[in-house]
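Batch manifest, entry 17 of 40.
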Amino acid sequence: MFNKKKQDKEKNENKDQENKEQQQNEEKPKHEPISPDKNQFLLDVKQKLHSPSDFIVRFVSDNMTLVYVDNLVDNKMLNEIILTQLHEVEEIPEAIHLKLSIPEVDVVNELNKFIGDMLQGAAIVHVNGYDQVVVAKISAYQSRGLSAPENESQVIGSQVGFNENLSTNISLIRRYITNPNLCNEKFVLGKQTKTSLSVLYIHGIAIEEYINTVKQRITDLEIEDLIDSSVLAELIDDNSRSIFPQMLLTERPDRFCDGLLSGKIGIIVNGSSMGILCPYSFIEFFQSREDQNLRWPIASFIRLLRFFAILISIFLTPIYVASLTFHYEVIPQPLLVPLSESRAIVPFPPIIEALILELIIELLREAGAKLPTKVGQTIGIVGGIVIGTAAVEAGITSNILIIIVALGALSSFTTPNYMMGNVIRIIRFPIILLAGFWGYYGVMIAVCILFIHLLRLTTLGAPYMAPFYPPRFKQWPNSIIRFPITFIQRQAVNSRNKKNDSEQSGKKVSK
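Output type: structure tokens
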């Protein structure tokens, strides 16, 4: 009986293995040879591309044909280099490959391979009678010029941001880091979009385990399209269901390079103006690149002010709701009378009053962000004043709550990272609800749930709450305040190369 079960189990395993192999074979693209005949070659290419209007065919000679997709190739290189040299070369694919004086030239004997290259900006040379083509990559993607970052502005420091061109972004990074150890590995994702991306890191500084993790997660992805780097960050992070970002999205080349120099892994996606840095801990989202450009006492004060503003943004409105609903005894006597007079004509309980105002603030913020710049600023300022004044006169809310909600909204904008700023604004709502139901006990429940979630999070397997958990006491002060440059360790806490640490231990910093 047991032998029979064992045989059935082995048969099922063999069937599963055969099904997997069959599925893998079906997923692999079939090898389609290139027709030696010129007319059949053009017919095959047109069928593959479904005869698009921007498909260009140019007959260089009786036996030589040049095909490409219009607006994807560099016309200057095509006319001045490719066509000029094709008239002077022997009509053999190997001879053409050796003659063309451009960086990327290859000889391909597979139809699907050169079709993909052509859609990425390659010109294809076919010689009648040969089942090979010469692929000359002369892509010329249109991209906007370099401009100042819009979402991560700073007063002191670089004023150049990434654009949507992968090559331009990598060149910006290499201008900052002229180091032969800067590694650049390219990948292609998306069955439909074939989006190119680059994984960058500095060999000897970044931890090998994190590098392998990032590359493995990218390789394992099976997606139809990839348009923006924010989508990739959500696909490869440790917990995509969490509201907290575990990878930094930045449009600043200087911040990106600073992360690479501290041991992080960077990802640049073609078509996106935001670079990805990982692993990134919770405390690092509240640190700005400009902190390094300011004198350390000023930078430390601003960083402490930023942390204080975050606490105000999250807890000020819930404390107001809890105090007025359950805990009048904590309100000072001189403040109790003005509060009572302010809320005397308000028909709603504090929780409803607070939620209405918070939603109005969020509506104004969203409307201001989506409208054109000049109109958005007017809507934000005028709308806030008009709605706030009308709400008080109509008896919907009190003057004090308007001040509290406005102060909380203003404090949330001090967060230097846009993604984390959105998180700070959203988590206020469940805390307000818990404060309205259970008072200070509800606030403490929310804090406990929040801390448990943060302590369980990881970023590429590294603790999200480093250096506070697990505790690394030597790194605590520099995480909260900014020490002088001579005392700052260049590598981040959660992405440190142990080999480099052992080599650097015992060495003193000298001016």
